Amino acid sequence: MFDYLVVGAGFAGAVVASQMARTFGKKVLLVDRRDHIAGNAYDHADASGILVHKYGPHIFHTNSKDIFEYLSQFTSWRQYEHRVLAAVDGKLVPVPVNLDTVNSIYNLRLDEKELEHYFEQVAEKPPVIQTSEDVMVSRVGRDLYQKLFRGYTRKQWGLDPSELDASVCARIPVRLNRDDRYFTDQFQAMPAAGFTRMFENMLDHPNITLLLNTDYREVANKVRFREMVYTGPIDEYFQFRYGKLPYRSLQFRHETLNLEQLQPVAVLNYPNDHAYTRVTEFKHLTGQAHAKTSVVYEYPCAEGDPYYPVPRPDNSQLYKKYEELGAATPNVHFVGRLATYKYYNMDQVVGQALTLCASLQGTTRREIIREQPLRQAAAS
Ligand code: FAD
Ligand code: UDP
């Protein structure tokens, strides 16, 4: 008899399984229909021995000391600050937009004060900021919006920014200074031996039974368990009773090139050219030394594995109906990016999973983090 059947071995499921086993002594059956753990954060050595992320670039960043310390039990870290350049008008310019982005695109020599004034001149002032178009034209004006955001967003989402919530493009800040880091979070790092190794350490516990290549529906009637924690798409759990929730998908084209380095930074964005949105060169993320280099091209598409919830008002209304169904389903708990239909980063999913564990055990998240033995797992 298991205490929990946990569906999905990504961040949400692995944190719940690990936590329930370690802190609360529960017996957990963890299943994933893929042939590996770590969900979309899965990384592995490719045919040339280069560590690559199967489902596109994953960079860990958080402002939560708690969450960083929590994960530090299972990995040591490689300090890494992510940088992205976008190909615009034949130039490579920093993203997020900063002083150098504007000076380079328009051949100007503005300083910070002048850039502030420039944005005041070009910014449009929509009466309310609801969509991703509103938020970007109000920050950088229409021309920069069209050069950097409109095309990329249309490719990535299959929707115009005017059809997407402001929160999508608002993920990308606008800076007056020359800071060209993609993230400014207090903690930015990559697991020293990769995400998959971190997950192996997390799940290495006698109370956890792991079944891969297994859809939970194949086992749910065969094993006994008290409660279920479900991290797959919530509409699928309810057999699409109210219709399909849109999730955006991607196709990944992985390549290994016979040269040491392809591009100056880990990610190049292509807002206006090509069918792909961005190209990632993994050695920048991992620091691995190798005579060859591996890259991935991301081609957005509507059909395929669900990767992104699509933040727009009708989708959140449809999700609310599924959320209500979920809340009325006894002994099943929904957590993670697909099950709660939230465009969450990894650290947010870890936080959400820890909060669920705390509420299931009648304690607080802070308490369960504090109870962890303070141990730095060997990364090798
Ligand atoms: P998932 O990782 O999707 O795990 C869900 C698991 O459930 C899957 O393994 C699936 O196989 C399994 N499952 C589903 N249904 C069933 C079933 N019926 N039976 C059995 N198993 C099932 N976040 C960052 O913080 N930084 C980044 O740089 C970043 N980059 C990203 C880049 C891309 C291209 C994508 C798509 C996401 C990125 N993210 C990033 C987000 C990050 O991937 C997610 O926040 C995180 O992986 C979500 O974890 P999860 O456990 O909720 O979901
Ligand atoms: N975006 C854009 N141009 C860029 C970078 C981002 O238009 O050069 C928009 C786009 O809509 C994208 C969103 O901002 O989907 C969020 O970008 P982020 O890099 O956070 O996306 P993710 O890494 O989650 O795919």
Number of domains: 2
* Strand-pairing-aware structural class: alpha/beta
Intertermini distance: 34 Å
At CATH level 2, the architecture of the largest domain is 3-Layer(aba) Sandwich
Low-confidence stretches: 374-380
CATH superfamily of the largest domain: NAD(P)-binding Rossmann-like Domain
Give the DSSP E fraction (strand runs of 2 or more residues). 15-25%
Give the overall shape, derived from the CA principal axes. globular
Reading off the top of the CATH hierarchy, the class of the largest domain is best stated as: Alpha Beta
Sequence of secondary-structure elements: EHEEEEHEEEHHHHEHEHEHEEEHEEHEHH
Cofactors, ions, other ligands: flavin-adenine dinucleotide, uridine-5'-diphosphate
Mean pLDDT: 96
**Helical residue percent band:** 25-40%
C-alpha Rg (nearest Å): 22 Å
How many strand units? 17
Strand order of the largest sheet: 8-7-13-14-15-12-16
Give an overview in words.
The protein has 13 helices and 17 strands. The chain has 380 residues and is α/β, with parallel strands linked by helices. The chain folds into two domains: 2-81 and 187-244 and 309-370, Rossmann fold; 84-170, no CATH class. The strands form four sheets. A seven-stranded mixed sheet has the order 8-7-13-14-15-12-16. The protein has a five-stranded parallel sheet with strand order 10-2-1-11-17, covered by helices on one side. A hairpin with a 5-residue loop joins strand 3 and strand 4. The protein is globular. The relative contact order is 0.21. Residues 7-13, 31-34, 39-41, 55-59, 215-216, 231-232, 250, 307, 336-338, 344-347, 349 line the site of flavin-adenine dinucleotide.
